[in-house]
Amino acid sequence: MSPGKPYPLGATWDGAGVNFALFSEHATAVELCLFDDAGNEERVPVKDRAEGVWRCYLPDARPGQLYGYRAHGPYEPEAGHRFNPTKLLLDPYAKAYSGELDWSADHFGYKFSSDEADLSMSEIDNAGGMPKCRVVDEAFTWGDDRRPETPLSEAVIYELHVKGFTQLHPDVPEELRGTYAGLASD
Rounded CA gap, 1 and 43, in Å? Predict the structure, then answer.
């Protein structure tokens, strides 16, 4: 593991490894939680932080890796801080998620039936019932396609309303009128 970059936020595959970056101004520690397909969790302490962005680079991580975070910090609901490392957090910048939420009281950061209500802190780990974030490869192989490289000064940009253009057009088959397929028809 190496320090990583603060931007872009989220998990970014660069072809050799994955950069993880998460913003939390008030966290005192952050753990990156890696999951295998069986749901086994490995916690990796994220040590590098600058300007509120916690980050690390994992050279062995690949697209498909399931992950989440655990944030440590003050549990002071009166001050607006509800850090609870027993709760797995989703990355708000994740590009994909995997799994379903198994809704239960385990996901509440406080003891659901406590007399102190949301001022109490739950110690139940919710990772088993949480969806996970998934690292994705955003590269797109264009094959033999190439950009036309037409200068903007020579380009013609035409906008039209698909339904309005095709709905009553006599050369468009009736079943395709008002659709993109109708626009593309002979």
Answer: 13
- Contact call for residues 179 and 162 (beta carbons, < 8 A): yes
CB atoms within 10 A of CB 97: 16
β-pairing, 29-35 vs 18-23, is: unpaired
pLDDT tens sequence across 19-74? 999 999 999 999 999 999 999 999 999 999 999 999 999 999 999 999 999 999 99
Cβ–Cβ under 8 Å, residues 131 and 101: yes
Environment class of 165 (CB within 10 Å of its CB; exposed 0-12, middle 13-18, buried 19+): middle
DSSP 7-66: -SSEEEE-SS-EEEEEE-SS-SEEEEEEE-TT--EEEEEE-EEETTEEEEEETT--TT-E
- Neighbouring C-beta atoms of residue 11, cutoff 10 Å: 25
Whether pLDDT at 112 is above 90: no
